[in-house]
Amino acid sequence: MVDRFGRVAVDLRVSLTDRCNLRCSYCMPPEGLDWTPEERILTDDEVIRLITVGVTQLGIEEVRFTGGEPLLRKGLERILAATTALRTASGGAPGRR
Q1: Would the pTM count as exceeding 0.85?
Q2: What is the CA radius of gyration of the chain?
Q3: DSSP-derived 3-state class of residue 15
């Protein structure tokens, strides 16, 4: 995936939730934020589809998961299993290079 400046993006960061109990100053203002309504959060199938398209069609080589501390999501194991089952253009599973 190439941006308008010619830079090639091969990393994908996927935030799995907006819930976090750390309240770090760099991502959570002192007054807090409203949580995203659940119906606006991507489903597990939608997350898996997004990652699959990125890896198989856009050249993504590395996928990082973020979102909240601790990183919890009901479908986390399924999302991770589907991601590690993918093969990148270089033949490996998406991960740290």
Answers
A1: no
A2: 15
A3: strand
**What amino acid occupies position 46?**
E
Q: Is the peptide bond before 94 cis (omega within 30 degrees of 0)?
A: no
Give CA torsion, residues 46, 49, 51, 55, to 10 deg: -170
Lookup result for tokens 């919890």:
72
Contact yes or no for 94/86 (Cβ under 8 A):
yes
Show pLDDT as tens, one digit a residue, over the chain (97 residues). 888 999 999 999 998 877 666 667 667 777 877 878 888 889 999 999 999 999 999 999 999 998 776 677 889 999 999 999 999 988 888 875 5
For residues 30 and 80, is the Cβ–Cβ distance under 8 A?
no
Structure tokens at 68: 């909240």
* 3 state SS of 16: coil
Q: What is the distance between the alpha carbons of residues 13 and 51, in angstroms, rounded to a whole number?
A: 10
C-alpha triplet 14, 57, 93: angle, nearest 5°: 60
